[in-house]
Design goal:
Layout lengths: L7 E5 L2 E8 L4 E6 L8 E5 L8 E6 L5
Antiparallel strand pairs: 1-2, 1-5, 2-3, 3-4
């Protein structure tokens, strides 16, 4: 099983983003963030899809 850490930059389905939430049931990959987090765009990625996530960098540091 893959282990993810909040803030790691990743690519998933040709979208670049970062891991925002991690649980045993799913992780979220945020591809668009704003200061107002209610407007952020994140994708749910379930364990059977984790193999498709590629880690591409360190931690995301700022919101748009």
């Amino acid at each position: 099983m893959m282990t993810f850490t909040k803030g790691i930059q990743v690519e998933y389905k040709n979208c670049n983003g970062f891991i925002e939430f991690v649980s045993d049931e799913y992780v979220t990959v945020c591809i668009e963030t704003y200061v107002d987090k209610f407007r952020s765009v994140c994708m749910l990625v379930y364990p059977d899809q984790w193999k498709d996530i590629e880690i591409v960098g360190d931690y995301e540091t700022e919101a748009k």
